[in-house]
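Researcher: First entry.
Model:
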Amino acid sequence: MKLSDLGERGIIGKMGKILDIGDDAACIKLGHESLILSTDTIHGPTHIPPGMTPKQIGKFIVTVNLSDLAAMGAKPLAFLLSYGGPDKEFSEFMQLIKAADSQCRKFGINLAGGDTKEMKELTLTGCAVGTAKKPVLRSGAVPGDIIAVTGELGTAGACFELLRKGIKPGSSLLKAALEPEPRINEGIFLAEYATSMTDISDSLAVSLYSIAKQSRVGMEIDIDKIPLSRFAPGNVVNHALYSGGDYQLLFTVPEKTFFRIKDSLNAKIIGKTTRSGGIRATRGSREFRIREMGYEHFDRNR
């Protein structure tokens, strides 16, 4: 059996039988707080579209790692960056490093160190460290909770589809897709209220299924309530459901609590949790099937 026979999520599922994994980041209890640790890698051929600048790449590697801290409700503490790539102009390398440092400082942390290695293709690995008094896991949703998302969805998927077709996206769409922001402030705020949470990095569908399975709840989703990108052309619903890269937060929260906090948060209700298993969805008056599908490494069909 090869890794591609399982796919990334299948691999993680197998690893979960021997390791305590399954949330957006690792959680280690330290006294009255928890240390939250995340690592993520981006690789030139799979993550970096042609035309993405060194500044955008440097910002992006920080964002994808901090997004995992946001999903746990953690406050960032430090960031480490390992750089692998071919020989290039030092000035171009420093543009990437300075952009990563600038993105760290935006969230009150330092680029504390890392490593450099010569490799054939650009490969960056980040490690984000944070703390949380009350980490939010994927396993805490209960029947009757509101299901909600921050921001808008479908931006990245629509942009990358245009780029694959050789079509230049509009400037607003391109910036939103190539320079996403981690929802750190929203995550810290929601840590006081959310029963479960995850970031939307691989797709909304994948994120919904991950919470439903780990919390052992069902879900009812209203497709028409999913907040869609203002900038994206084409089948935005499909991109919102099945494309990754938006880095918004999906969370559950008691209904009374949501309406108490909604004015402090840019979030929209898309459904509710139920006792019965599985995910049911409607679009208008019709049933709508949400497949467990999204971006996945080691996918033989990609």
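Researcher: Second entry.
Model:
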Amino acid sequence: MSLIFHPSFGKAPDRVTVPNDEIILKGSLRKTVVLVHGLTGTPNEMRHLAFTLNKRGYSIVCPRLANHGQPLRILKRTRWEEFYESLRTVFLKAAETGDKIYVAGLSMSALFVLLLAEEFGEQLSGGVCYAPTLFFDGWNVPWYNRLLPLARFTPFEHSIYFREDPPYGIKNERMRAMVHRYFSKAKIEDIDGISKFGYAFFPISLFRQLRLLADRIVPMLGKVTTPMLLVHPEQDDTASLRNSQMIFDGISSPVKKLVVLKDCYHVITADQERDLVAQETIKFLEAI
């Protein structure tokens, strides 16, 4: 990751009309899985998992989190509470069907799964945390990342970005090359291609939101009793295995499992062990 300084002047840009890339699939069972992409990501990260689960009879709802798909100048000013509320609304709508509801989230969205478990208890039949991110402490995160929260005390909090660099959370070389072709040419205000690849730049203002979210999550882990599966790559370039281990040790769920992957990076739902991720998810959901 490399730091980019890009000051924003004038009023924020108008919201744009974005493609509806949510994934909605009707299944044969009275069971619905809400799949949630990561911060600055896209529902496309969950596509393989969505269709695999649907073939097993699960209905699928895979929404776009608040302000994703909009220009970065809008996304970067979004609070974590707004992201959570957009997921919470989807969860409540899914619950109206009378189905058993499961929620599975990637990276930051895995933390939202824990919030739903705390808030709704038995209304959430089970949760899955894919590479949950309490701390950015993976092997590809630069040392100066820990200093970035200090930017909030300067006028530059909304003017500094990380430019995404290889491996982009992807170990599979063919898939990584596809992402690289887009990310290496993307400009900071580009929105074309976001639906497929996500954002090529990460605003540091969102690091602060993640920190605030983590501060909310850690003290309440013991209140979580929902059956919970955690799946984490041993070689995570973004968030080390310590993240999942802390959650696994902290939650009070009588049914919980931690699966460690050996051959992929952070975006485990799309990387080369995605079939194993799907298999472990199905095995867990069918057992609870």
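Model: Note on the second entry: Strands lie at 2-5, 23-25, 31-36, 59-62, 100-106, 126-130, 160-163, 201-203, 228-233, 256-261.
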